[in-house]
Structure formats: structure tokens, C-alpha cells
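Bug report (template v2)

What were you trying to do?
Predict the complex of my protein with adenosine-5'-diphosphate.

What happened?
Run completed; filing so the output is reviewed.

Input:
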Amino acid sequence: MPSINEKQILRTLNTIKEPSSNKSVVELQMISGVVIKDGNVGFTIEIEPSKAQEMEPLRHACEEAIRHLPGVISATAVLTAERKATTGAQTHNTADNQQSRQTSVKELPNIKSVLAVASGKGGVGKSTVAANLALAFAANGSRVGVLDADIYGPSMPRMLGIAGRPQAGDDKKLRPLENYGVKCMSMGFLMEEDTPMIWRGPMVQGALEQMLHDVQWGELDILVVDMPPGTGDAQLTMAQRVPLAGAVIVSTPQDIALLDARKGLAMFQRVHVPVLGFIENMSYFLCPHCGDRSEIFSHGGAKTWAEKLDVPFLGELPLDIEIRETSDQGTPIVMSNPDSAHAQTFSAIAKNIYSRILNDEDTRTPPKIVTI
Ligand code: ADP
């Protein structure tokens, strides 16, 4: 198949006119964030926030024009009002955000609920927890997908023992890869391997929309989104643009002490996504030789903070060699040693989350806003 490049895409989009000015969308500098990966194209069209409805036919025309180019497997165009949407932590007015969430979130009709697994910073075991929770949901009979949205270090395919690249079907939608009964798509599939990539806001949005809407997920009971760590604009955009039923925040005891996890809580609350609770990871160290327990990071911080902030505490997992080895080898503990104490902990947490997500009233009650 011929390959497609950004120049060809812009040349084609240059033939599409913005109706009110009759100038091309390229000339008006409305196009940005072009992402091309294996024939899958994503880009954003910058518009005035008030014109979203009016611009929908333009978005559609751009998408169609690109979709018909030789070498294109799928095309996704996203309308963005980037300037207004630079919803940095400082600008928030909750009413505005509630509104922008309502207007920007496109529902996913075949997916019953979407759960975000988030953390205030990297390296706390967020992906490990996401992988094990996904497997625990699947073990309970749910139809599960994992969307690896961690643009800084997409690790979900490796953790789930998945190799290869997704292929598109006749409908030009990508088929997720699957292992252990869990479907998986990763932002990593849109990135060149080993090439550090700087993600600009519109690119993140484009790639995320593509992963959500241009993938043949099939019917799912739950889609677990492994969020990028942190609470910056990329994370906030995701929290706003994905129809989340709820979020869980993974933290280490010292992470919560250092405010990061609490910032994560505040971020979800600002965009009215219910925080289902904190999970404390690397909570204490269990010596594999003598069974001795050492509380190296002042264990229990997340529980204490959960109580203070009126957020449920979902459970704790120790720093444990088996958790590390199994997740790094692509055989997470819930799958490889389901009877172990740690797998049982993941399983109990998953059941708790699942029952609360299904209980609509509970998750839709606006959370108490706390100022941190
Ligand atoms: P994050 O997604 O927060 O960046 P990862 O899930 O990638 O973190 O975990 C970082 C590293 O820590 C990985 O090597 C993982 O196997 C390891 N790890 C995560 N949780 C635990 C744990 N409870 N015990 C031991 N190692 C862990």
C-alpha cells in the first residue's frame, strides 16, 4: 500500500473551504496536530468554541477527503477550541467546566462504562494496577478493554503480553489486540518505537479520539483507561473528553504525602468525574525471605488522606517482587497466580469498583469539592 505523508494531507485539506470566509482550512491555519501511523490519520481543526455545531459538516468533509486518499486506512478529525480549552488548573470555574464536558464528550454506545486509572506522578504502579484490575474484571465475566493513554510511557501491551500492531478491518476501523480475554489499544501504536515524541495538546486529543471512536471495540462492559501520570493539560483534556464513569487514583504513601495524588483528585472533581477511591501501591515491603514486613514509606498515607478528603479507600498492595516480575513479564499476578493474596486484593478492589460504577446514582452524585 502507498504510504501517506503530512504534505499530501495538507494538500488535500487545502481544497476544503471554510464556508463563512470561503478560504481553505489550511490557509486559515485551522489544521494542526496531524498524526499519521501506519495509514491511520488523525488531525484537529481549530474553531471558535461557539461554532462547534456549525462546523460539524466541515469536520466531516475534511475527514471524508482524507479517508479517500490512497494509503489511508482511517481518518479522524476533531474540532478543537484550543485557546479556550487551555483549562490549566488556574482558570477553573466549575460551571463552565461542567458545560464544556457536556458539550465535548462524545458517547460510546457499545461501551457500558469507562474507568480512568490515574496517578499524580509516574512510577507509582498505575499501569500495573490498571492491568491487574482489567484482568480481575475479565475473570469476573465482564467484557473488558484497556486503552493505554499513557503518552509518556505506554506499557500496557507489554504488561498484557501483547506483541504486534493492530490491523484495520474492511470498515477501516482498527481491531484491538487481545490477550487473556482483554482487548487492548495503546497510544504506543501511534508512536515510532524508541523515538521520544513531544505531544502537543491537539495531538493528544486527536490520538485519543481515534483510539476511542475509530477502534472496533465491540460490546464492552468496561473500558479501563490507563491515564498519563500527572495533572497537566493532557490529563485534564482526557478527563474532559472521555465519557468517564469514574476514576481511581493510585498512589504510594509518599506520593500522597507530596500532594500529587491529591492534585489528581482535584482535577477529576473539577470536571465532575466521580473519584471512586484511592489505591495505595508499594504500601509496605514484605521480605520474600523472612516474611518480615517493613513500612519503608510510612504506610497508610493514602488511607489517612482518603478519610480526610472524604474519598473511599479501595485497598493497598505491598512492594512485592512477584507483582513486579509478573507485570514486567506480561503475566500480571491476577492472571498468573490468581489464588495469591495480592491477586485476591486486586480482585476485591475490582468488585468494589464495578459495583459502584454500575450503581449510577452513586457515581453521578457530584463529589464534594475540596480546595487543596
Ligand atoms: P506507572 O504506570 O505508575 O508509571 P508501572 O505500573 O509502570 O508504574 O510500575 C513501575 C514499576 O514498578 C514496574 O517495573 C512495575 O513492575 C513495578 N511495580 C508496580 N507496582 C509494584 C508493586 N506493588 N511491587 C513491586 N513492584 C511494583
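What did the reviewer find?
The pocket of adenosine-5'-diphosphate is lined by residues 119, 122-128, 155, 229, 281-282, 317, 319-320, 323-324, 327-328 (CB under 6 Å). Residues 83-103, 361-372 have pLDDT under 50 and may be disordered.
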